[in-house]
Amino acid sequence: MNRREFAQMLTAGAGSLGLAGPEGIALAENEPPVRPSGAASIANPVTVDDFRRNAHAMLPEATYDYIADGSGDGHTLRANVDDLQRVNVLPPLLRGVAEPDLSTTVLGTKISLPIMLAPVAGLRMFHPDGALATARAAHVMGTLQGVSSSAFHSVEEVAAAAAGPKWFQMYMPQDRRVARRLVERVETAGYEAIILTVDQGEWKDNDRRNNFSVPRATLIKHLRDIGFDVSDNWSDDELQQFNAQEWDLAMTWDVFAWLRSVTKLPLIIKGVLRPDDARTAVELGLDGIVVSNHGGRRLDGMPSTIKMLPGVVGAVNGRCEVYMDSGIRRGTDVLKALALGAKAVLIGRAYAWGLAANGEQGVKGVLELLRDETANAMASCGCAGVTDINREFLTDL
Q1: Which residues contact residue 43 at a Cβ distance below 8 angstroms, ignoring those fewer than 6 apart?
Q2: Sequence-distant (≥ 6) Cβ neighbours of residue 338 within 8 angstroms
Q3: Phi and psi angles of residue 46, each rounded to the nearest 5 degrees, phi first
Q4: 56, 139, 222, 294: which one is catalytic?
Q5: CA 228 to centroid of chain Cα atoms
Q6: H helices, E strands: number in the chain
Q7: CB neighbours (10 Å) of residue 111?
Q8: Which residues are within 8 A (CB) of 120 and not within 5 positions of it... i.e. 6 or more apart?
Q9: How far apart are CA 15 and CA 215, in angstroms?
Q10: 3-state helix, strand, coil in the chain (%, to 5)
């Protein structure tokens, strides 16, 4: 399938579906409007924003909006980026570092740079190879891929696409038998940890205006990839009702005890902003915390992740690893997050734009760009390795 055919598939008519809730899926009532963006592409992208513009030029408008927009009025989306920019870097002089080492470890796994790929839903809607192209780029760049359960490629398909460390992000099925089989498949496929995204809800104006949708066949494949028994003969209403009922949207902290009972894989909680929640996660013995507001896609009005990161790091006090996502657009952003205690950062929109713009090479290009910018920031601050990065180099916190 070429890119033109792929774009036509995304804007297919009857029998389409829309994303809603916590990457849960409901059938759309109407087909999405086909509106060429008219955005100009950039032949030589040298910033994350250049990749964004190229993605905008490549995608149907509704699909681009799905990646780019935040919830509500977009206050949290903007705050993630703006608050990172408000933190100033104050580099010392003459530290004698020319080529810093960006490698680090996450849960004992060595990666070549402190930038991982966050689990992003719907990757197959941005490029036909979706999570498969992403896996190949992550492997080439020596970093870790977070794989969304809603990426629209199965656990096994992504694992087979490329070697390299992977964490699987799950939304919890109501039927714990389905959930347990999924966990077992994740283990068998060689994933190294499970991420549980625990905060619910997504309210995005343009998605509703656009009746954002993807083909019915994608929903059926997705549900089967999870392990649900879905019939091709079901009506759209039956599919919608089934999907609405099959996800556990009312989880409590007890879900981690259940996960511990069925797997020995490390467990990571994603969506933490409050220090008290971080302390609870540590007390439950979780292995990692992602400080995240999901790039402002969930509840508008939440604080930025860089603002909340120090409080979470302080509450954890070294008892588990802390990572941060949301708002990373520059290598200096990576340095700021690490200086405030993050073990590594995850990027989402940035590589989704790269994927949409140029598939595997686009994801690789975004990672190379952020790697080189981070190396430049580290050398400017005299940091020979990531463990040298600390609050000494920041001001205006």
Answers
A1: none
A2: 114, 344, 345, 386, 389
A3: -125, 5
A4: 294
A5: 24
A6: 16, 15
A7: 20
A8: 148, 151, 348, 349, 351, 352
A9: 6
A10: 45, 15, 40
* Segment holding 160, helix H or strand E: helix 155-161
Which token pair is 256?
């981690």
pLDDT of residue 397: 60
Cα gap 252→393, rounded to integer Å: 39
The residue with tokens 């006090």 is: 317
CATH number of 74-200+247-395: 3.20.20.70
User: CA torsion angle for 219, 221, 223, 229 (degrees, to 10)?
Assistant: 120
- The tokens of 340 are what? 């405030």
Residues 41-81 pLDDT 10s: 899 999 999 999 999 999 999 999 999 999 999 999 999 99
How far is 187 from 181, CA to CA, in rounded Å?
A: 10
Catalytic annotation on 139? no
User: At how many degrees (to 10) do helices 305-316 and 331-339 cross?
Assistant: 30
Q: Where are the domains of the chain?
A: 74-200+247-395
